[in-house]
Amino acid sequence: MEAEKKPILTNHYYEIAGLQLELRFPSTLNLDNVLSSFVGFRKDRGDGTSVAVVTFKEEEVPSEEEWGALRSDISLVWGDNFRFYEQEGAFVTLIKHNVKDKQWMMKSTKDFRESVLYGKSEDPRMGEFVSWLLMVVFGQVGLQHQLILIHASVIAYKNKQGVAFLGKSGTGKSTHSRLWLQHIPNTELLNDDNPVVRLEEDGKVMIYGTPWSGKTPCYKDKRVELKGFVRLEQAPLNRFTRKKGMEGLIAVLPSCTALRWNKDLFNAMTDTLSQLVDRVNVGHLECLPDADAAKMSHKALFYEKNSDEVVA
Amino acid sequence: MKLRQDLVLRKVGDDYIMVDPSQGMVDLSKVHTLNETAAWLWEQLTGKEVNVEQIATRLCERYDVSREKAIADAESLIQEFDKAGLLEA
Question: Entry's Pfam families (chain B) (predicted)?
Fold first, then answer.
Protein backbone atom coordinates (compact mmCIF):
# COMPACT_ATOMS: atom_id res chain seq x y z
CA MET A 1 0.00 0.00 0.00
CA GLU A 2 1.26 3.38 -0.90
CA ALA A 3 0.43 6.32 1.33
CA GLU A 4 -1.12 9.32 -0.37
CA LYS A 5 1.45 12.04 -0.72
CA LYS A 6 0.15 15.19 0.88
CA PRO A 7 1.87 18.46 0.11
CA ILE A 8 3.24 20.34 3.10
CA LEU A 9 1.30 23.55 3.64
CA THR A 10 2.55 26.84 5.01
CA ASN A 11 0.28 29.27 6.83
CA HIS A 12 0.36 32.84 5.57
CA TYR A 13 -1.30 35.71 7.43
CA TYR A 14 -2.52 39.01 6.08
CA GLU A 15 -4.26 41.90 7.77
CA ILE A 16 -6.78 43.77 5.66
CA ALA A 17 -8.93 46.52 7.17
CA GLY A 18 -8.02 45.19 10.62
CA LEU A 19 -9.13 41.62 9.90
CA GLN A 20 -6.75 38.69 9.76
CA LEU A 21 -6.96 36.48 6.69
CA GLU A 22 -5.20 33.10 6.80
CA LEU A 23 -4.00 31.21 3.73
CA ARG A 24 -2.74 27.65 3.75
CA PHE A 25 -0.77 27.09 0.57
CA PRO A 26 1.86 24.53 -0.48
CA SER A 27 5.23 25.37 1.02
CA THR A 28 6.88 25.02 -2.39
CA LEU A 29 5.00 28.07 -3.70
CA ASN A 30 6.46 31.54 -3.37
CA LEU A 31 3.24 33.25 -2.42
CA ASP A 32 4.70 36.76 -2.61
CA ASN A 33 5.28 36.18 -6.32
CA VAL A 34 1.80 34.78 -6.83
CA LEU A 35 -0.02 37.40 -4.76
CA SER A 36 2.24 40.43 -5.20
CA SER A 37 -0.53 42.91 -4.34
CA PHE A 38 -0.83 41.28 -0.90
CA VAL A 39 2.81 41.75 0.12
CA GLY A 40 2.16 45.05 1.91
CA PHE A 41 -0.58 43.42 4.00
CA ARG A 42 1.48 40.46 5.20
CA LYS A 43 1.85 39.77 8.91
CA ASP A 44 4.95 37.96 10.14
CA ARG A 45 2.96 35.77 12.41
CA GLY A 46 -0.69 35.17 12.94
CA ASP A 47 -2.68 34.97 16.10
CA GLY A 48 -5.83 33.00 16.76
CA THR A 49 -8.12 35.65 15.32
CA SER A 50 -8.33 34.71 11.63
CA VAL A 51 -11.77 35.68 10.33
CA ALA A 52 -11.33 33.47 7.28
CA VAL A 53 -9.12 30.53 6.37
CA VAL A 54 -8.50 29.59 2.74
CA THR A 55 -6.76 26.31 1.89
CA PHE A 56 -5.34 25.58 -1.54
CA LYS A 57 -5.76 22.08 -2.95
CA GLU A 58 -3.86 21.32 -6.08
CA GLU A 59 -6.48 18.93 -7.33
CA GLU A 60 -8.80 18.70 -10.22
CA VAL A 61 -11.93 20.77 -9.80
CA PRO A 62 -14.78 18.53 -8.59
CA SER A 63 -17.24 17.60 -11.32
CA GLU A 64 -20.31 19.56 -12.28
CA GLU A 65 -22.87 17.49 -10.38
CA GLU A 66 -21.18 18.53 -7.14
CA TRP A 67 -21.60 22.28 -7.67
CA GLY A 68 -25.22 22.76 -6.63
CA ALA A 69 -27.94 25.14 -7.82
CA LEU A 70 -26.82 27.92 -10.14
CA ARG A 71 -27.39 31.28 -8.47
CA SER A 72 -25.60 33.72 -10.74
CA ASP A 73 -23.49 33.90 -13.85
CA ILE A 74 -22.93 37.64 -13.78
CA SER A 75 -19.52 39.01 -12.96
CA LEU A 76 -18.09 42.21 -14.34
CA VAL A 77 -14.60 40.82 -14.03
CA TRP A 78 -15.02 37.39 -15.59
CA GLY A 79 -17.92 37.90 -17.95
CA ASP A 80 -19.32 34.59 -19.17
CA ASN A 81 -16.69 32.55 -17.39
CA PHE A 82 -18.09 32.99 -13.93
CA ARG A 83 -20.61 30.80 -12.10
CA PHE A 84 -21.89 30.96 -8.57
CA TYR A 85 -23.68 27.96 -7.03
CA GLU A 86 -25.38 27.16 -3.77
CA GLN A 87 -25.61 23.74 -2.17
CA GLU A 88 -26.38 22.29 1.23
CA GLY A 89 -24.06 24.10 3.64
CA ALA A 90 -21.82 25.61 0.98
CA PHE A 91 -21.37 28.19 -1.74
CA VAL A 92 -19.33 27.36 -4.84
CA THR A 93 -17.57 30.01 -6.92
CA LEU A 94 -16.30 28.86 -10.28
CA ILE A 95 -14.09 30.47 -12.89
CA LYS A 96 -14.77 28.41 -15.99
CA HIS A 97 -12.42 27.52 -18.79
CA ASN A 98 -13.09 25.35 -21.82
CA VAL A 99 -10.00 23.37 -20.89
CA LYS A 100 -11.11 21.56 -17.74
CA ASP A 101 -7.60 21.66 -16.31
CA LYS A 102 -7.62 25.43 -16.27
CA GLN A 103 -10.79 25.88 -14.24
CA TRP A 104 -10.66 27.36 -10.77
CA MET A 105 -13.17 26.60 -8.08
CA MET A 106 -13.72 27.61 -4.53
CA LYS A 107 -16.00 25.88 -2.07
CA SER A 108 -16.90 27.96 0.98
CA THR A 109 -18.97 27.49 4.09
CA LYS A 110 -22.11 29.64 4.05
CA ASP A 111 -20.47 32.29 6.22
CA PHE A 112 -17.25 32.16 4.11
CA ARG A 113 -15.11 31.58 7.19
CA GLU A 114 -13.62 28.47 5.61
CA SER A 115 -12.89 27.91 1.95
CA VAL A 116 -11.07 25.37 -0.15
CA LEU A 117 -9.56 26.49 -3.43
CA TYR A 118 -9.03 24.09 -6.32
CA GLY A 119 -6.70 24.88 -9.22
CA LYS A 120 -3.31 24.24 -10.77
CA SER A 121 -0.29 26.15 -9.50
CA GLU A 122 1.37 26.06 -12.93
CA ASP A 123 -1.49 28.16 -14.32
CA PRO A 124 0.14 31.46 -15.36
CA ARG A 125 -3.00 33.30 -14.27
CA MET A 126 -3.07 31.75 -10.80
CA GLY A 127 -2.34 35.04 -9.03
CA GLU A 128 -5.18 36.84 -10.75
CA PHE A 129 -7.69 34.06 -9.99
CA VAL A 130 -6.66 33.50 -6.39
CA SER A 131 -6.65 37.22 -5.66
CA TRP A 132 -10.17 37.58 -7.02
CA LEU A 133 -11.48 34.54 -5.12
CA LEU A 134 -9.95 35.94 -1.94
CA MET A 135 -11.83 39.17 -2.61
CA VAL A 136 -15.06 37.17 -2.77
CA VAL A 137 -14.20 35.60 0.61
CA PHE A 138 -13.15 38.83 2.26
CA GLY A 139 -16.17 40.74 0.98
CA GLN A 140 -18.58 38.26 2.54
CA VAL A 141 -16.71 37.50 5.73
CA GLY A 142 -16.19 41.21 6.38
CA LEU A 143 -19.94 41.81 6.50
CA GLN A 144 -19.95 39.93 9.80
CA HIS A 145 -17.54 42.54 11.20
CA GLN A 146 -19.37 45.74 10.21
CA LEU A 147 -17.26 46.09 7.13
CA ILE A 148 -18.31 46.45 3.51
CA LEU A 149 -16.18 45.92 0.44
CA ILE A 150 -17.36 48.50 -2.05
CA HIS A 151 -16.84 49.20 -5.72
CA ALA A 152 -15.31 52.67 -5.73
CA SER A 153 -12.33 54.85 -6.47
CA VAL A 154 -11.08 56.60 -3.34
CA ILE A 155 -9.16 59.79 -2.73
CA ALA A 156 -7.44 60.52 0.58
CA TYR A 157 -7.50 64.24 1.31
CA LYS A 158 -4.87 65.85 3.52
CA ASN A 159 -3.88 62.35 4.58
CA LYS A 160 -6.79 62.13 6.99
CA GLN A 161 -10.14 62.06 5.19
CA GLY A 162 -11.39 59.94 2.34
CA VAL A 163 -13.98 60.36 -0.39
CA ALA A 164 -15.36 57.34 -2.26
CA PHE A 165 -16.55 57.84 -5.83
CA LEU A 166 -19.21 55.35 -6.89
CA GLY A 167 -20.78 54.54 -10.23
CA LYS A 168 -21.35 51.87 -12.80
CA SER A 169 -18.35 50.63 -14.74
CA GLY A 170 -17.38 53.20 -17.34
CA THR A 171 -18.96 56.13 -15.47
CA GLY A 172 -15.61 57.72 -14.78
CA LYS A 173 -14.80 56.94 -11.14
CA SER A 174 -11.08 56.68 -11.86
CA THR A 175 -11.23 59.74 -14.09
CA HIS A 176 -12.83 61.77 -11.32
CA SER A 177 -10.12 60.64 -8.89
CA ARG A 178 -7.46 61.70 -11.42
CA LEU A 179 -9.10 65.10 -11.65
CA TRP A 180 -8.81 65.49 -7.87
CA LEU A 181 -5.14 64.51 -8.03
CA GLN A 182 -4.53 67.14 -10.69
CA HIS A 183 -6.60 70.01 -9.38
CA ILE A 184 -7.03 69.64 -5.61
CA PRO A 185 -3.92 70.01 -3.44
CA ASN A 186 -3.04 67.45 -0.76
CA THR A 187 -4.73 64.51 -2.45
CA GLU A 188 -3.61 60.92 -2.88
CA LEU A 189 -5.20 57.88 -4.49
CA LEU A 190 -6.04 55.39 -1.73
CA ASN A 191 -7.61 52.70 -3.92
CA ASP A 192 -9.04 52.66 -7.44
CA ASP A 193 -11.61 49.86 -7.39
CA ASN A 194 -12.28 47.85 -4.21
CA PRO A 195 -11.74 49.68 -0.94
CA VAL A 196 -13.29 48.62 2.34
CA VAL A 197 -15.52 50.80 4.50
CA ARG A 198 -15.73 49.89 8.15
CA LEU A 199 -17.90 51.08 11.00
CA GLU A 200 -15.43 51.02 13.87
CA GLU A 201 -16.31 50.17 17.44
CA ASP A 202 -15.99 53.83 18.44
CA GLY A 203 -18.63 54.75 15.85
CA LYS A 204 -16.19 56.28 13.38
CA VAL A 205 -16.42 55.35 9.73
CA MET A 206 -13.06 54.50 8.20
CA ILE A 207 -12.09 53.65 4.63
CA TYR A 208 -9.19 51.29 3.94
CA GLY A 209 -6.93 50.46 1.04
CA THR A 210 -6.87 46.75 0.06
CA PRO A 211 -4.88 44.33 -2.14
CA TRP A 212 -7.60 44.75 -4.78
CA SER A 213 -7.62 47.86 -6.93
CA GLY A 214 -8.84 46.91 -10.41
CA LYS A 215 -6.49 47.85 -13.22
CA THR A 216 -4.56 50.39 -11.13
CA PRO A 217 -1.75 48.97 -9.00
CA CYS A 218 -2.57 50.88 -5.81
CA TYR A 219 -2.42 48.47 -2.89
CA LYS A 220 -2.11 50.55 0.25
CA ASP A 221 -2.30 49.24 3.78
CA LYS A 222 -3.68 52.53 4.98
CA ARG A 223 -6.88 54.01 6.33
CA VAL A 224 -8.47 57.43 6.64
CA GLU A 225 -11.78 58.62 8.03
CA LEU A 226 -14.53 58.49 5.42
CA LYS A 227 -15.97 61.92 4.70
CA GLY A 228 -18.51 60.81 2.15
CA PHE A 229 -19.76 58.78 -0.78
CA VAL A 230 -20.34 60.48 -4.12
CA ARG A 231 -22.30 58.67 -6.83
CA LEU A 232 -21.18 59.85 -10.25
CA GLU A 233 -23.26 60.14 -13.35
CA GLN A 234 -22.12 61.45 -16.70
CA ALA A 235 -23.97 64.62 -17.66
CA PRO A 236 -23.62 67.69 -19.89
CA LEU A 237 -23.13 69.82 -16.76
CA ASN A 238 -21.78 69.70 -13.23
CA ARG A 239 -24.31 69.53 -10.40
CA PHE A 240 -24.02 68.16 -6.87
CA THR A 241 -27.10 67.02 -4.93
CA ARG A 242 -26.96 65.93 -1.29
CA LYS A 243 -28.78 62.67 -0.46
CA LYS A 244 -30.19 61.84 2.94
CA GLY A 245 -31.81 58.85 4.60
CA MET A 246 -33.34 56.41 2.15
CA GLU A 247 -31.99 58.31 -0.86
CA GLY A 248 -28.51 58.07 0.59
CA LEU A 249 -28.88 54.35 1.12
CA ILE A 250 -30.13 53.83 -2.42
CA ALA A 251 -27.20 55.83 -3.78
CA VAL A 252 -24.65 53.57 -2.05
CA LEU A 253 -26.39 50.15 -2.03
CA PRO A 254 -25.62 49.14 -5.65
CA SER A 255 -21.88 49.58 -4.99
CA CYS A 256 -21.82 47.19 -2.03
CA THR A 257 -20.86 43.54 -2.16
CA ALA A 258 -23.21 41.07 -0.51
CA LEU A 259 -24.64 37.82 -1.68
CA ARG A 260 -28.36 38.24 -2.14
CA TRP A 261 -28.90 34.54 -1.44
CA ASN A 262 -27.60 34.55 2.07
CA LYS A 263 -30.06 36.43 4.30
CA ASP A 264 -27.65 36.72 7.23
CA LEU A 265 -24.91 38.27 5.13
CA PHE A 266 -27.30 40.54 3.26
CA ASN A 267 -28.94 41.73 6.48
CA ALA A 268 -25.54 42.36 8.06
CA MET A 269 -24.65 44.52 5.08
CA THR A 270 -27.89 46.49 5.19
CA ASP A 271 -27.49 47.04 8.95
CA THR A 272 -24.02 48.44 8.52
CA LEU A 273 -24.95 50.49 5.48
CA SER A 274 -27.96 52.03 7.26
CA GLN A 275 -25.63 53.28 9.97
CA LEU A 276 -22.97 54.46 7.54
CA VAL A 277 -25.28 56.69 5.51
CA ASP A 278 -26.45 58.33 8.74
CA ARG A 279 -22.88 59.15 9.70
CA VAL A 280 -21.22 60.36 6.50
CA ASN A 281 -22.16 62.62 3.60
CA VAL A 282 -23.80 61.10 0.56
CA GLY A 283 -24.10 62.99 -2.69
CA HIS A 284 -24.96 62.56 -6.33
CA LEU A 285 -22.72 64.33 -8.80
CA GLU A 286 -23.83 64.81 -12.36
CA CYS A 287 -20.58 65.66 -14.02
CA LEU A 288 -18.36 66.33 -16.95
CA PRO A 289 -14.82 64.92 -16.97
CA ASP A 290 -13.34 68.33 -16.14
CA ALA A 291 -11.56 70.25 -13.40
CA ASP A 292 -14.74 72.03 -12.34
CA ALA A 293 -16.38 68.70 -11.52
CA ALA A 294 -13.57 67.83 -9.10
CA LYS A 295 -13.68 71.31 -7.58
CA MET A 296 -17.44 70.99 -7.12
CA SER A 297 -17.35 67.66 -5.29
CA HIS A 298 -14.42 68.92 -3.19
CA LYS A 299 -16.30 72.07 -2.21
CA ALA A 300 -19.56 70.22 -1.50
CA LEU A 301 -17.86 67.81 0.88
CA PHE A 302 -15.32 70.01 2.61
CA TYR A 303 -16.53 73.61 2.46
CA GLU A 304 -20.29 73.55 2.81
CA LYS A 305 -22.61 72.84 5.68
CA ASN A 306 -22.28 69.43 7.30
CA SER A 307 -18.57 70.00 6.97
CA ASP A 308 -15.93 70.52 9.63
CA GLU A 309 -14.38 73.31 7.67
CA VAL A 310 -15.66 76.74 6.75
CA VAL A 311 -15.16 78.65 3.56
CA ALA A 312 -11.92 80.57 3.85
CA MET B 1 -52.14 36.14 6.47
CA LYS B 2 -48.80 37.25 7.91
CA LEU B 3 -46.14 39.83 7.20
CA ARG B 4 -42.94 38.51 5.67
CA GLN B 5 -40.61 37.59 8.50
CA ASP B 6 -37.44 37.85 6.45
CA LEU B 7 -37.74 41.59 5.93
CA VAL B 8 -36.09 43.88 8.45
CA LEU B 9 -37.53 47.33 9.09
CA ARG B 10 -34.84 49.94 9.58
CA LYS B 11 -34.80 53.65 10.25
CA VAL B 12 -32.35 55.52 8.06
CA GLY B 13 -32.30 59.24 8.74
CA ASP B 14 -35.99 60.16 8.85
CA ASP B 15 -37.05 57.28 6.62
CA TYR B 16 -38.36 53.82 7.44
CA ILE B 17 -37.11 51.32 4.91
CA MET B 18 -36.93 47.62 4.12
CA VAL B 19 -34.44 46.22 1.65
CA ASP B 20 -35.71 43.17 -0.21
CA PRO B 21 -32.88 41.32 -1.98
CA SER B 22 -34.08 39.64 -5.16
CA GLN B 23 -33.39 35.92 -5.37
CA GLY B 24 -33.27 35.60 -9.14
CA MET B 25 -30.24 35.48 -11.44
CA VAL B 26 -30.59 39.17 -12.17
CA ASP B 27 -30.39 41.63 -9.31
CA LEU B 28 -33.79 43.27 -9.08
CA SER B 29 -33.52 44.07 -5.39
CA LYS B 30 -36.05 46.56 -4.03
CA VAL B 31 -36.12 49.14 -1.30
CA HIS B 32 -39.54 49.71 0.28
CA THR B 33 -40.31 52.86 2.22
CA LEU B 34 -42.97 53.07 4.90
CA ASN B 35 -44.48 56.13 6.51
CA GLU B 36 -44.48 56.42 10.27
CA THR B 37 -47.91 54.83 10.76
CA ALA B 38 -47.16 51.90 8.45
CA ALA B 39 -43.80 51.40 10.18
CA TRP B 40 -45.48 51.41 13.58
CA LEU B 41 -48.07 48.90 12.37
CA TRP B 42 -45.35 46.72 10.85
CA GLU B 43 -43.64 46.48 14.23
CA GLN B 44 -46.93 45.80 16.02
CA LEU B 45 -47.96 43.08 13.60
CA THR B 46 -44.67 41.24 13.10
CA GLY B 47 -45.15 37.53 13.64
CA LYS B 48 -48.89 37.89 14.20
CA GLU B 49 -51.90 37.00 12.13
CA VAL B 50 -52.85 40.04 10.06
CA ASN B 51 -56.37 41.02 9.10
CA VAL B 52 -58.46 44.12 8.50
CA GLU B 53 -60.19 43.93 11.89
CA GLN B 54 -56.97 43.83 13.85
CA ILE B 55 -55.32 46.65 11.96
CA ALA B 56 -58.43 48.79 12.32
CA THR B 57 -58.55 48.16 16.06
CA ARG B 58 -54.94 49.24 16.47
CA LEU B 59 -55.50 52.33 14.38
CA CYS B 60 -58.53 53.27 16.52
CA GLU B 61 -56.49 52.80 19.69
CA ARG B 62 -53.69 55.04 18.51
CA TYR B 63 -55.44 57.65 16.42
CA ASP B 64 -58.59 59.69 16.79
CA VAL B 65 -60.36 58.06 13.87
CA SER B 66 -63.79 56.56 13.21
CA ARG B 67 -64.14 52.76 12.94
CA GLU B 68 -65.32 53.08 9.31
CA LYS B 69 -62.32 55.17 8.31
CA ALA B 70 -59.94 52.81 10.15
CA ILE B 71 -61.41 49.81 8.35
CA ALA B 72 -61.09 51.51 4.98
CA ASP B 73 -57.46 52.46 5.72
CA ALA B 74 -56.67 48.96 6.95
CA GLU B 75 -58.10 47.48 3.75
CA SER B 76 -56.02 49.71 1.54
CA LEU B 77 -52.90 49.09 3.63
CA ILE B 78 -53.25 45.31 3.24
CA GLN B 79 -53.73 45.82 -0.50
CA GLU B 80 -50.58 47.94 -0.64
CA PHE B 81 -48.58 45.36 1.33
CA ASP B 82 -49.87 42.61 -0.93
CA LYS B 83 -49.06 44.52 -4.12
CA ALA B 84 -45.55 45.25 -2.86
CA GLY B 85 -45.01 41.56 -2.02
CA LEU B 86 -44.65 42.15 1.71
CA LEU B 87 -47.07 39.41 2.79
CA GLU B 88 -46.06 35.82 3.31
CA ALA B 89 -46.94 33.58 0.41
Answer: PqqD
| Residues 40 through 69 of chain B touching chain A, CB cutoff 8 Å | none
**Dist CA A166 CA A106 (whole Å):** 28
CATH of the domain at A169: 3.40.50
- Domain of A216, in residue numbers: 147-302
Residue A310 placed within a domain: no
Determine whether the interchain pair B25/A274 forms a contact, defined as Cβ–Cβ distance below 8 Å.
no
Any domain includes B3: no
The CA-atom distances, in angstroms, between B28 and each of A152, A267, B20 are 21, 16, 9
Q: Is A308 left (phi over 0), alpha (psi -120 to 50) or beta?
A: alpha
Report which of A113, A136, A143 is spatially closest to residue A269, judged by C-alpha positions. A143
Disruptive mutation site among A151, A259, A260 for chain B (greatest number of B CBs within 10 Å): A260
Residue B39: give the domain boundaries: 10-83
Tell me whether residue B18 is in a domain. Answer: yes
Tell whether B6 is within 8 A of chain A (Cβ).
yes
Interchain contact, B22 vs A246, CB within 8 Å: no
In B, minimum Cα distance to A270 occurs at B19
Q: How far is CA A148 from CA A139, A215, B6, B49, in A?
A: 7, 21, 21, 36
Predicted confidence pLDDT, tens digits, chain A (312 residues)? 455 667 899 999 999 999 999 999 999 999 999 999 999 999 998 898 999 999 999 888 888 778 888 888 877 666 678 889 999 999 999 998 888 778 999 999 999 999 999 999 999 999 999 999 999 999 999 999 999 999 999 999 999 999 999 999 889 999 999 999 999 999 999 999 999 999 999 999 999 999 999 889 999 999 999 999 999 999 999 999 999 999 999 999 999 987 788 888 999 999 999 999 999 999 999 999 999 999 999 999 998 765 444 433
Listed residues A121, A145, A169: the one ending a domain? A145
**pTM, to two decimals:** 0.91
Is the CB of A246 less than 8 angstroms away from the CB of B13?
Answer: yes
By CA distance, what is A261's nearest residue in B? B23
Predicted-complex ipTM score? 0.85
8 Å CB contact of A74 and B26:
yes
Distance CA A132, CA A214 (A): 10
- Does any CB of chain A come closer than 8 Å to the CB of residue B84? no
Chain A partners of B23 at a C-beta cutoff of 8 Å?
Answer: 260-261
